[in-house]
Design a protein that fits this description.
Layout: H1 2-18, E1 19-26, E2 37-40, E3 43-47, E4 53-57, E5 63-68, E6 71-77, E7 84-88, E8 99-100, E9 107-108, E10 116-120, H2 121-124, H3 133-136, E11 142-148, E12 151-156, E13 167-168, E14 171-174, E15 177-178, E16 185-186, E17 198-203, H4 207-210, E18 216-221, E19 230-238, E20 242-253, E21 256-267, E22 276-290, E23 293-307, H5 314-319, E24 334-349, E25 354-370, E26 375-395, E27 398-421, E28 424-448, E29 453-473, E30 481-501, E31 504-515, H6 519-522, E32 536-549, E33 552-564, E34 567-571, E35 577-581, E36 584-600, E37 606-624, E38 626-627, E39 630-631, E40 643-653, E41 657-666, E42 669-670, E43 678-679, E44 682-695, E45 699-708, E46 736-746
Parallel strand pairs: 1-7, 14-18
Antiparallel strand pairs: 1-4, 2-3, 2-5, 5-6, 8-9, 10-17, 11-12, 13-16, 14-15, 17-18, 19-20, 19-46, 20-21, 21-22, 22-23, 23-24, 24-25, 25-26, 26-27, 27-28, 28-29, 29-30, 30-31, 31-32, 32-33, 33-36, 34-35, 36-37, 37-40, 38-39, 40-41, 41-44, 42-43, 44-45, 45-46
Length: about 750
């Protein structure tokens, strides 16, 4: 017995040193949080008990990750022989704590002088995980249309007016790198939800720091911090032959790590000839060679193939909304696109006052588009980058921040148009070598006149040019060389933000916008080249108020956007979509976002019961528009719903069960400039229920089931505007169901 006591006395100090007690508490209530999953490298995993306490073995790791369904994830180093209390922040949208990086300036939302919406990763997974449309459409002022699976069109404050298909007039970034092509279009359908962790959306002109574009800016961010070694698998299935599976792995290496994911999504589609097949592979590496610098590099490969059913007229819609447009099947109307992105990002901190961020990319794309009227083939190569310097300093007693940098993009495309004979490319009609160059310099100056008052002055100098070298023309025209160079344009922005107190603030801004036509608008499918198409110019005036009061978060903004040389669409006698400048438009609007937690307590069985509302009032009209001898001045802007309302309910329980319920109301909207044809108002209801939890220390799982269009509404999630032969309608699915399972293992 004495021998046993001897060994106990010798090894007891080491045992006590290895096992350290920690407690996890709520930031607001300071109450303990049970059920928090704790993970670390080489650590088997632990879950806090009913008192929020766990024992951590410090012989294996000293840095741990803490996660809970109702709280933001946190990494923290645990110190032995000290009182270790880990404080978790509730997963809320408290405007006084939310930080956004809009306008290249990391500040709390209350200090941002502009309309900014966030789409969190958790919000993407409130719906079926095949599209961003539903999650984005819960935000005021934003509308994502999906005329067919994988065929996106984005409208931010009416910016899709000139987009019969695809994403235009909206600048998109992915991890700080331009994702919008040099020609002004964005292949948004190449990304899967797994490539997006969170999103920030700037509404209205942001040309002062993001270059050309009147609609706004979307900044996607994928995972950049590898906090644990983890393997995960997802499987999702649903109506219309939907199947989606994903495999991912995270490997921590020093202060960085590797992230790999592969996703394959297929469906037959609701309508005839609307199948989609998409494969996306992403490899990312993140490194921190020193305290002063960070590297990230990514490879994104996407292989997308989707069919285009085409629009229907009213008679066809009534006969059978699931039918394809006559001719679409025989001509194999579809898009096949393979794209490879390579990116490199570098951040270097020179001192506590000066930092540089530089990002470069290279992209190759193969594009093939058989259509009813023709057959297009394109091979494209592009590269570009963005760099900015940020300096934090003082002038006298006033803190200042200076941001200066530039962005450059170059693209070269071989574009060929053929005849379409039963879905096969026939003889060549015309062939062009296209070269596009976009560049701009930007400067931004911020000064804090007081702890409450922030002023921002910014402007950019924009340069744009495209060359169209026609090498083959099967018509009577001779091959030609065409060039359009836009004069350097300076677009300014001035913004003021005043923080009334630590929970509320007001902001106002005046910003200018500039948006040149894309090559797809200048070089049309029937072979014409419209070099007379002018760039859109606009000025936006905005005033907003944000407040967090008790359980309520309120974000409301009013704006007036005056747009000149507005680009709109029309169809010729053959049904080819063409573009023209349509005078000017007046765009007045109000956008409001409200959310409040009726109940939030991590200690009870029901941990959170939250409601959210988003209202959009867009009262847009043509100010001066004459077309074909008709005066459309004063008409409602085509394709814009005057009023939309979104209501959401979220319920989370201690056992891991959750319920998401969403209602969307969309007002009737005009489908042509004459305002003689409208889409009726409709109500969409969707819901998702599921269970997610941590179990067996290193495992986490989720099972879910959902329904879209619960009320079985007939509607179009994206119409053809000013359509030839009155083919306006792109019917969306009626009531449909889906479900899935996710499994993860940390090691």
């Amino acid at each position: 017995m004495k021998k046993h006591y001897f060994f106990l006395i010798i090894f007891l100090p080491f045992s006590l040193f290895a096992q350290t007690t920690i407690q996890v508490v709520d930031l607001e209530s300071q109450e303990s949080i049970p059920g928090v999953a704790i993970k670390g490298i080489g650590f088997k995993g632990q879950i806090t008990n009913d008192k929020g306490i766990a024992q951590i073995d410090l012989t294996q790791s000293k840095s741990f990750n803490f996660s809970h369904i109702a709280y933001q994830k946190k990494s923290q180093e645990i110190i032995p022989n000290q009182e270790n209390i880990v404080v978790l922040v509730p997963e809320t949208n408290d405007l006084s704590t939310v930080t956004v990086s809009a306008f290249d300036s990391d500040r709390p939302l209350l200090q941002q002088a502009g309309s900014v919406s966030r789409v969190l990763e958790s919000e993407l997974y409130r719906f079926n995980e095949t599209s961003i449309a539903n999650a984005f459409n819960t935000k005021a002022g934003i509308r994502v249309e999906e005329r067919a699976p994988a065929s996106y069109r984005i409208s931010i404050r009416g910016s899709s007016l000139r987009s019969p298909f695809g994403v235009r007039n909206v600048k998109v970034y992915w991890n700080g790198i331009p994702f919008t092509s040099p020609d002004g279009t964005t292949p948004l359908n190449l990304l899967d939800l797994s490539n997006i962790q969170q999103t920030e959306i700037v509404k209205g002109p942001a040309s002062s720091i993001y270059g050309a574009g009147n609609g706004g800016v979307i900044s996607f961010h994928s995972k950049t911090q590898i906090e644990e070694n983890r393997v995960s698998m997802d499987l999702n299935a649903g109506d219309f032959g939907l199947i989606r599976y994903r495999f991912g792995i995270d490997q921590q290496i020093g202060d960085g790590g590797l992230n790999v994911s592969y996703v394959h999504q297929k469906s037959d589609g609701y309508r005839e000839h609307s199948a989609v097949d998409r494969k996306v592979f992403q490899l990312a590496a993140h490194m921190k060679p020193s305290d002063k610098q960070k590297f990230s590099t990514q490879i994104l490969y996407s292989d997308l193939d989707y069919q285009i059913p085409g629009a229907l007229n009213a008679t066809q819609l009534e006969e059978d909304p699931r039918q394809a447009r006559p001719g679409s099947v025989n001509q194999n109307s579809s898009i096949a696109q393979k794209s490879l992105y390579g990116t490199l990002s570098h951040t270097y901190t020179f001192s506590d006052k000066l930092e540089n961020q530089t990002a470069l990319y290279v992209n190759t794309t193969e594009f093939e588009n058989p259509f009813i009227l023709d057959y297009k083939k394109e091979t494209a190569f592009s590269y570009g980058g963005r760099t900015k310097f940020t300096r934090n300093d003082k002038i006298g007693r006033f803190p200042i921040r200076i941001i200066a940098g530039g962005e450059y993009q170059y693209g070269k495309t071989l574009a060929q148009n053929f005849g379409n004979r039963n879905g096969q490319a026939d003889t060549v009609r015309f062939s062009d070598d296209l070269v596009t160059t976009q560049a701009f310099l930007f400067q931004q100056f911020e000064v804090e006149w007081s702890n409450q008052f922030l002023m921002t002055i910014a402007f950019s100098e924009n340069f744009s040019r495209y060359d169209i070298n026609r090498t083959i023309d099967a018509s009577a025209n001779e091959p030609s060389s065409n060039q359009r160079k836009f004069d350097p344009i300076i677009v300014p922005r001035i913004a003021l933000a005043y923080q009334i107190n630590n929970k509320s603030g007001i902001h106002g801004s005046i910003s200018s916008g500039f948006s040149p036509p894309s090559i797809a608008e200048v070089r049309t499918n029937e072979g014409s080249i419209n070099l007379d198409l002018e760039a859109e110019r606009g000025v936006n005036y905005e005033l907003g108020y944000r407040v967090t009061h008790g359980i309520f978060n309120v974000d409301i903004v009013g704006f007036y956007f005056k747009l000149d040389q507005t680009i709109t669409t029309f169809a010729n006698e053959q049904g080819v979509v063409l573009f023209r400048n349509a005078g000017s438009t007046n765009q007045r609007g109000i956008e409001a976002q409200v959310d409040y937690a009726i109940w939030r307590n991590s200690q009870t069985q029901i941990q959170e019961f939250k409601l959210s509302h988003a209202f959009t009032g867009h009262y847009f009209e043509f100010a001066d528009f004459n077309s074909g001898g008709n005066d459309f001045s004063g008409n409602q802007l085509t394709g814009i719903a005057p009023n939309t309302l979104v209501n959401q309910l979220d319920l989370r329980t201690k056992l891991g069960f959750y319920l998401n319920f969403t209602h969307q109301y969309v007002d009737k909207l005009p489908l042509n400039d004459a305002n003689t044809v409208y889409q009726d108002a409709y109500n969409l209801v969707s819901s998702r229920i599921g269970w997610r939890s941590f179990f067996a220390r290193n495992w986490d799982a989720e099972v879910y089931f959902g329904v879209d269009n619960l009320l079985n509404e007939s509607y179009s999630l994206g119409n053809d505007l000013n359509a030839f032969a009155n083919r306006f309608y792109q019917p969306a699915p009626l009531r449909n169901y889906y479900g899935g399972v996710k499994l993860g293992y940390s090691f």
